[in-house]
Write a structure and sequence with these properties.
The chain is an alpha/beta fold. The protein is 46% helix and 14% strand. It has 4 domains: 124 residues, Rossmann fold, CATH 3.40.50; 173 residues, Rossmann fold (3-Layer(aba) Sandwich); 68 residues, Orthogonal Bundle (Helicase, Ruva Protein, domain 3); 69 residues, Homeodomain-like (Arc Repressor Mutant, subunit A, Orthogonal Bundle). It contains 19 helices and 16 strands. It is globular.
Length: 478
């Protein structure tokens, strides 16, 4: 239940307004002027303030200014007398949520309060999302603590509140749609529709109708008027995935809609205004696509106000543990399983695989394993029989970003240098042999300090001891 503070210097008006607002289910308190109101805001922490514009000691505009200095989420509704529209506009300019004129219309006030309550809730949700990002490396559906993902999160946070177009690039399966959803969820449009359309999945003869809509009789089979994706996304966000697959004629029409904010349905005589934020995505190099004539240059420059490049999974392998755990939790809920996590052996295998299908391939692999296991920890036996056919990334490969924050800085310095931390592998080396060489080389670089070696390898001390026992037994047998 939202708390509403009434700031009004006239006693009868103050009491009557408080009783009216309380009758709608809000918790209310009152203050006789701006100075008292400021004290109540600091002590009682209301989410909404209804304040008169003209009051002794501190008026409504000064109170609004002081509230903004507190950096607290409060929606301020300004009450103005007839003929004070200029002051109301000034209040809106410096941060008021809305204004209402005297005598107060209860119906309009109730509507404003309902809208303000929703806005306060959305702002709180956004603040929680930002806090979660800083604490856990999670931004909506996106997960990652690597430098590349943190840079993407920071860019998304910065540009989400604006209405500018964004072009998201990256290989298939890297999470381009997830990035688009994060942009939408962090924007003022988050309560409106998010519509995604894959341009490559729609036949060329139908794509213009799908995107812009059509009138009845516009073409054979058009038996009724139909709204396109732009109208379905009104006041929200439209994702045009695989924009490079859109026919040239449709690209030209899209460019005009982006510039004029109006569209013409197929068969329509008049244009329809639209308010939509457009995000485009492609798995092609957009500049190469422009050079090849697949993407109009003027459309590319119009869409590419900001570019977000989603890196392939092989370039941020250190994010796999957190991504995999999140996927396991999701799959447990979806398939009614109770999988606890992954074994160290399986995790090492996942982090030394190039993932040509990127995060999408990882998700499919995890989902299959969770369904097979049902409960307990996922192990090597839960991987597909042909897993690894695409190759193996040696531990010294530059794409492998080993998580090192938990390793003491002094040890990182002693373990590096002198060129002793490189493991060279020949083509055809088995995974088990590569793992053995990595473990023994790490032990050598730490002067046989098993605790520190386990930290650097990202495995438990017990797992390291078991591996060393296996190598010793194999040596004895030989």
């Amino acid at each position: 239940m939202n708390k509403v503070l009434i700031v009004e210097d006239e006693p009868n008006a103050r009491t009557g307004l408080a009783e009216l607002v309380a009758s709608w289910g809000y918790r209310t308190d009152v203050a006789g002027d701006g100075l008292e109101g400021l004290e109540k805001i600091q002590q009682w922490a209301p989410s909404i303030v209804i304040t008169d514009l003209r009051m002794p000691r501190m008026d409504g505009l000064e109170l609004l200014d002081r509230i903004s200095e507190l950096q607290t989420k409060v929606a301020v509704i300004m009450v103005t007398a007839q003929g004070s529209i200029e002051s109301a506009v000034e209040a809106m300019r410096i941060g008021a949520y809305d204004f209402i004129q005297k005598p107060i219309d209860p119906v309009r006030l109730r509507t404003i309060l309902q809208n303000a309550s929703r806005q306060v809730g959305a702002d709180l949700e956004l603040e929680i999302t930002r806090r979660r990002l800083k604490e856990t490396g999670v931004l909506g559906p996106l997960i990652g603590s690597s430098t590349s993902m943190k840079d993407i999160f920071e860019l998304i946070e910065r540009i989400a509140p604006s209405n500018v177009s964004v072009l998201i690039t990256g290989e298939s399966g890297t999470g381009k749609e997830l990035a688009a959803r994060a942009l939408h969820d962090l924007s003022p449009r988050r309560t409106k529709p998010f519509v995604a359309v894959n341009c490559a999945a729609i036949p060329e003869t139908l794509i213009e109708s799908e995107i812009f809509g059509h009138e009845k009789g516009a073409f054979t089979g058009a038996q009724e008027r139909r709204a396109g994706c732009f109208e379905l996304a009104e006041e929200g966000t439209l994702l045009l995935d695989e924009i490079g697959e859109m026919p040239a004629a449709t690209q030209a029409k899209l460019l005009r809609v982006l510039e004029d904010r109006k569209l013409r349905r197929l068969g329509a005589k008049a244009e329809t205004p639209v308010d939509v934020r457009v995000i485009a995505a492609t798995n092609k190099n957009p500049q190469t696509a422009v050079g090849a004539g697949e993407l109009r240059g003027d459309l590319y420059y119009r869409l590419n106000v900001f570019n977000i490049h989603m890196p392939p999974l092989r370039d941020h392998l250190s994010d796999i543990p957190s991504i995999a755990q999140s996927m396991i939790e999701d799959m447990n809920h979806r398939h009614h399983c109770t999988v606890s996590g992954l074994t160290d052996t399986l995790m090492a295998r996942l982090m030394h695989y190039p993932w040509p299908g990127n995060v999408r391939e990882l998700r499919n692999t995890i989902e299959r394993a969770v369904i097979l296991a049902g409960s307990g920890a996922l192990d090597m036996k839960h991987l597909p029989a042909n897993f690894g056919e695409h190759g193996f990334i040696p531990p010294s490969h530059t794409a492998f970003q080993r998580p090192v924050p938990q390793v003491p800085p002094a040890f990182r310095e002693s373990a590096s240098g002198a060129g002793n931390d490189i493991v060279e592998l020949e083509v055809g080396t088995t995974v088990d042999e590569a793992e053995r060489q990595l473990i023994l080389k790490t032990l050598e670089s730490t002067n046989n300090n098993k605790t520190r070696a386990a930290e650097i390898l990202g495995i438990s001390s017990k797992t390291l001891q078991n591996k060393l026992k296996e190598y010793a037994s194999a040596g004895d047998e030989a």
